[in-house]
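Final paragraph of the annual report: two paired records, presented back to back.
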Amino acid sequence: MATFLDMGMLEYFNIIFYFLFLFVLVFAVMQATKFPTENKNLSAILAFLIAVLVIFSSSTRDIISIITPTFVVIIFFLFFILLIYRFMGANDADVRSIMGSEGGTRTFLLIIILIIILSTLGKTFFSGTAETTENGEMNISGKNSEVGTKGEDALVGTLTHPKLLGLVLILIIGAFAMTFISREAQQIIMK
């Protein structure tokens, strides 16, 4: 039965929504960063071309369809958290100090965004069907997935792989070494 609330027909227009979303996003980033040029017409043409090129890839459409609702929910909650701060009497300077680099909120949000992006990439590129052979081995058909079985399992398998964990450990040790070496150099210069 057809109703006014039936959204099934909108599925046929998804590609137009993807195109508009990408065009607006790329154009806004180009205008905010003034990266290629300050000319709005050239930025609009470049954003149009990038959006047209990206929407022809089915994997990027899958990424956009998975990641967009998650970011909308995050932005929705952030908006209401900021609204609650404002209702409790905080001014703009207080909100900036909380959301700035001093409070660590920006780092926390960046980590959450990175986790969302990685899990979306895992769902998109590492999903496939897992089949068990007669020997009990797992064969994965569909998309390429070397470490995990499929979907989120592939992401978890990749993130817990010993080579990746060793690389992360080496990077952490290197970051601490650079921090302590530069701190000692600053103390020597201050004396």
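The closing record of the year follows.
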Amino acid sequence: MAESLPTSPERKSFTQRWLPHPWTTVSLVVLWLALQNSVSNGNLLIAFLLGIVLPIYTSSFWPQRQALTNPFPVFELVVIVLWDIAVANAQVASLVLLKNPSQLRSRWVSIPLDIVSPEALTALAAIVSLTPGTISSDFSDDNRFLLVHCLDLEDADSLIHSVKDRYEKRLKRILV
């Protein structure tokens, strides 16, 4: 009786091996060129090397590849986050320059979360921390709540609604 040979693991295509996370590659290339503030041949070479090598090196940390079928929600989220950062910068500047520190209403707020993807949770925490005046501090043990510190907050419910409506809803569409 003939023994069946063990089947080889599923072979990845050339693109999956060399560009395991193409959007990460594009992001790294753009970020490197923006940080260098120059598009020379040497910077392009380094940008593409980083953009190809880093995702390959870190692909084992991402066991399930997130599929991005529609890039529009990503661009929508980026525009909203950049707008919120600009507005928050102006608000924090006015707080620092014009308001007495004893009048600040610093508060801790626990935001209930519906997202479960580790990538979405990380992105949400980063977005909150990037927005001046707020910083994400910790997740609950079950990742159902995000603890956020606010420099000056009048209404916690408005912050919760804003985070859920502006960021979490879009992250759920992007990172299913």
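The chain has two domains: 14-61, 72-174. This concludes the annual technical report; the extension proposal builds directly on these records.
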